[in-house]
Design a protein that fits this description.
The chain is mostly helical. It is 53% helix and 0% strand. The chain has one helix and no strands. The longest helix has 40 residues.
């Protein structure tokens, strides 16, 4: 059976079954620890980004309610 050439953006072929059984325990532990850290950290990025957007909108609304000293075109 001839394997098709892998597309550069799709990665290579999937790993074979039970490939983790042959991997060193410390390598598996490092990958799992990295996955846990990324899974814990990404939601925090989302919450802080949402907080920033809310704060920015509130400050923008507050600023738009005050005069900035600039007269808009067509204003008396």
């Amino acid at each position: 059976m001839v394997a098709a050439a892998a597309h550069p953006l799709r990665g290579g072929p999937p790993p074979e079954r039970d490939v983790l059984r042959g991997a060193p325990w410390w390598g598996v532990a490092a990958v799992l620890a990295g996955a846990v850290l990324v899974g814990w950290w990404l939601p925090l990025v989302g919450w802080t980004l949402a907080g920033f957007v809310v704060l920015d909108v509130l400050l923008g609304l507050r600023r738009s309610g005050t005069t900035s000293g600039v007269t808009p075109p067509g204003a008396p």
